Amino acid sequence: MSDMNHPNDASTEVTTTGAARTDVVPAEKFADPGVPAHKPRLTDVDPKSAKRNERIVTFLFVLSCLGAVGTVVAYVAVPPEGTTESVRLSTLLLGLGMAVSLLGIGIAGIHWAKSLMGDAEMVQDRHPIRSSDAVRAEAVRDLNEGLEDSGAVGRRGLLKGAALSALALFPLTIAVPLIGSVGGDWNVSKFKHTMWKKGTRLALDPSGRPIKASDVNIGSAFHVIPETTEEYRETHEWITEKSKAVVLMVRVRPEELKSDQSPEGQQWSYDGIVAYSKICTHVGCPVALYEQQTHHLLCPCHQSTFDVADSAKVVFGPAKRPLPQLPIAVDDEGYLVAQDDFAEPIGPSFWERLK
Questions:
Q1: H or E element, residue 99
Q2: How far apart are the first and last CA of the chain?
Q3: Which of 59, 186, 208, 292 could covalently link to 219 via disulfide, CB atoms 3.0 to 4.6 Å apart?
Q4: Residue among 295, 297, 321, 327 at smallest CA distance from 309
Q5: What is the pLDDT of residues 83-123, one digit of tens each?
Q6: What share of the chain is helix, strand, coil (3-state, %, to 5)?
Q7: 3-class SS at 38?
Q8: From CA 324, how far away is CA 347, in angstroms rounded?
Q9: What residues pair up with 235 in beta bridges, in sequence order?
Q10: CA quadruple 293, 297, 299, 304: dihedral sign
Q11: pLDDT digit string (tens) for 200-257?
């Protein structure tokens, strides 16, 4: 065989038929460019700049500490009770405090790494698993130099103290509210009843305007709350009661209803208008996505799907029980009213529930 056909020749290639090709161009070799030269930053050559950036990072860590302390103070001084405004204010202050605390740590860490820690690129050749004593000693020396260069030990003690304080205080923004809620209200029997009762008018959420049956068109969906006074809707108690009593009401053609009666034979709908609890029986998410053609209600959290034309029975998803139905009728003025409360507890399971 000639040198032209030798399989080790880089300028040849053997085809599938065994013939050799001589038109293949060998790969061009080039030298390893290596690591580019290090470009020093301003903080590497100017001590004043390094000191200024150290003060900036320290300030950010201190700001994080103040945010954590402010969150705890807001939790104690502005409890979410009394009015809707107090709930909003408490939530706002807690969120701002936690944001300042966590952002202070994050921004300070990034700025520290970008401006003060060493940024020179290094290449480390591979070695056997167990390096020689000389190499191990060199590695320890390099680590010590890195610690010294980052300013984590020895110098910049104020910066180190600010960083440790920020990291130590931030968990309080989560732990204090959690600990404070341990002694909350565990009376689960409150879920067995809502503020719906016989004669309570159905009203639009959030305006509170009563709804007439003539206002509800076929295929439409309404978010419904019990009618109450405007003064009561400004109280903290209303927030709790509304969260249990929210309803989704839709209207279908009466002939499309597969079931519209209670187990006792009482009619629970009015001329194709049906109303169900918006609280999913899986984990309590709001069921509010209505598909007109299929009459399906979808829970956006875990995709549990309920059929409003068939007593809101589950047709898909992890939920195991239908949505509780609110029995409705109309009063003498044509307004939609509740016949009674829900026939069963709303929401997901709890240990005192029979089913």
A1: helix 84-115
A2: 87
A3: 292
A4: 295
A5: 677 888 888 999 999 999 999 999 999 999 888 888 877 77
A6: 40, 15, 45
A7: coil
A8: 8
A9: 83
A10: negative
A11: 999 998 888 999 999 899 988 899 999 998 888 888 788 888 888 999 999 998 888 8
